[in-house]
């Protein structure tokens, strides 16, 4: 199996299970038009986040790393009336595109986009959150995870994206962003505050994966 086949399988299921969606498709188009990096979750991963948030009836969601708000929109759509989503983005150019995408989706009253470095914003947030999606600069994964724990309720779910990176996670000499994942995995070893696993994924975005943790 190669990336071409994984991509074709993604397309097959996307057609079957995730029909064209004008708001989400426009968000991706706006991201492309603004020349933002194509590092958003794939549609099937976005829907997985959406379904997980629904499965646990999340009312309060925190996202670290907005980009163009593609994953943000998937997550916000899982919220019941009165729910809220706080998303953090450091790059002003990304935030401009994200705000436009959020407005087009009609979700301005639900999504609270905070601009700035996540580690500056997190201490001022009020929890508890039911669901946290960590998908920003990977080097700070351990710090983001600690904040996610502080701001979450028991039973909350924390997802950390991009933890496999074509298998580079196995390399103790790998680049710094991979070290950020390895530091997190080491921190979680024997950590009684959470119960965690990691899943590998393949698809149009290549070979990657995520850590899923439930707060004890
Ligand atoms: C992988 S992208 C997020 C993708 C998005 N979650 C999605 O799937 O559609 C990572 C984002 O984190 C932002 N970022 C990087 N460092 C950050 C920091 N220190 N604080 C907040 N955001 C940061 C980047 O500018 C980028 O937009
Ligand atoms: Mg990601």
TrEMBL record:
<dbReference type="GO" id="GO:0008171">
    <property type="term" value="F:O-methyltransferase activity"/>
</dbReference>
<dbReference type="InterPro" id="IPR029063">
    <property type="entry name" value="SAM-dependent_MTases_sf"/>
</dbReference>
<protein>
    <submittedName>
        <fullName>O-methyltransferase</fullName>
        <ecNumber>2.1.1.-</ecNumber>
    </submittedName>
</protein>
<dbReference type="InterPro" id="IPR002935">
    <property type="entry name" value="SAM_O-MeTrfase"/>
</dbReference>
<keyword id="KW-0489">Methyltransferase</keyword>
<dbReference type="GO" id="GO:0032259">
    <property type="term" value="P:methylation"/>
</dbReference>
<dbReference type="GO" id="GO:0008757">
    <property type="term" value="F:S-adenosylmethionine-dependent methyltransferase activity"/>
</dbReference>
<dbReference type="Pfam" id="PF01596">
    <property type="entry name" value="Methyltransf_3"/>
</dbReference>
<keyword id="KW-0808">Transferase</keyword>
<keyword id="KW-0949">S-adenosyl-L-methionine</keyword>
<dbReference type="InterPro" id="IPR050362">
    <property type="entry name" value="Cation-dep_OMT"/>
</dbReference>
């Amino acid at each position: 199996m190669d990336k071409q086949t994984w991509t074709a399988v993604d397309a097959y299921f996307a057609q079957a299970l995730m029909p064209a969606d004008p708001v989400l498709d426009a968000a991706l188009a706006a991201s492309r038009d603004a020349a933002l990096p194509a590092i958003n979750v794939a549609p099937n991963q976005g829907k997985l986040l959406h379904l997980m948030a629904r499965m646990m009836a999340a009312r309060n969601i925190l996202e670290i790393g907005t980009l163009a708000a593609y994953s943000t929109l998937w997550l916000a759509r899982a919220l019941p009336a009165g729910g809220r989503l706080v998303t953090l983005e450091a790059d002003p150019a990304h935030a401009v595109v994200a705000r436009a995408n959020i407005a087009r989706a009609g979700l301005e009253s639900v999504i609270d986009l905070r601009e700035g470095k996540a580690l500056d914003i997190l201490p001022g947030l009020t929890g508890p959150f039911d669901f946290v999606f960590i998908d920003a600069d990977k080097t700070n994964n351990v710090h983001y995870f600690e904040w996610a724990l502080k701001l979450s309720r028991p039973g909350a779910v924390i997802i950390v994206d991009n933890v496999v990176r074509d298998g580079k996670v196995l390399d103790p000499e790998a680049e710094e962003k991979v070290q950020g994942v390895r530091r997190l995995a080491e921190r979680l070893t024997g950590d009684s505050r959470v119960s965690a696993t990691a899943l590998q994924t393949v698809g149009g975005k290549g070979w990657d994966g995520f850590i899923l943790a439930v707060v004890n």
